[in-house]
Amino acid sequence: MSAITLVEAINQAMAYELERDENVLLLGEDIGVNGGVFRATAGLQARFGSKRVVDTPLAETMLGGIAVGMAAMGLRPVVEIQFMGFIYPAMDHIVNHATRMRNRTRGRLSCPMVIRTPYGAGIRAPEHHSESTESMFTHIPGLRVVVPSSPFRAYGLLLAAIRDPDPVIFLEPSRIYRLIKQEVPDNGEALPLDTCFVLKEGTDVTLVSWGAMLNETLQVAQQLENDGISAEVIDVATLKPLDMDTILQSVSKTGRCVVIHEAARTSGFGAEIAAELGERAWDVLKAPVLRVTGYDTIVPLYRNEMQYLPSVERIRDAVDTVLVYERIV
Known about the structure:
By secondary structure, the chain is α/β, with parallel strands linked by helices. The protein has 12 helices and 14 strands. The strands form 3 sheets. The chain has a 7-stranded mixed beta sheet, with helices on both faces. A 5-stranded mixed beta sheet has the order 9-11-10-13-14, with helices on both faces.
């Protein structure tokens, strides 16, 4: 078994589901002949045909509406939006139809659709190609929001998302599409949704992150270990519904927490985690929960792009701050 990249793992998962379930089909701009802007669907149209892997016009509103109709009638559409900054025209159908289908029909219909989109900065692209607005989707009832952080998790989580009976937003961190390689068995085994994954156990501080920022977070954890500090690292993976129990269990052990994400700070999803900890873990916290985030600006062009993203140094500074802080009761 050879190691593959995250984008290859996504391709592998879609191929598996296309082969396994005749109701699965892929829709998107340039996904067929060209294999997608990041080549996530490369070779799939040649293998499964143009009726299963469908090139569409440049019309995200149309993509959202078609996917809702298909899903309501029993198909399982997997839609690719080329970049997260292009998803907003489809929001009407996502918010007003996809997420409400089960409630609106009192369970008679569901909406088993997946919207995949690359997201995040770090690929030298203009701002519409570098957005991280995941918290906007977590606010919508009836919608799952999933973010893989490695090839192995991308494969297992995408299988689970396609098989889920309700709509899923599947955010693919474009910065790590080809940064990490792992051996990924193509065995059709899905990973659980709605579950955080503990990537490293520790006792001194809890580091919580998702997507591409796990790369820097794990680097900091290794630095801390070299300095004799034990950090527990949690990959949130499914932002909505959030597995808060795993985070609480970790913080009850460490007493300290730093949340890391590249999205803008104000109303970022890290604020939700911090608020939950403030309400439910106030008696075990030894220090305030700190967030290391992007800034409340539009993602800058490449010259300043890496200054926008949380760095290893910024994360380490936050960890050092919570480690020296002792609550006075």
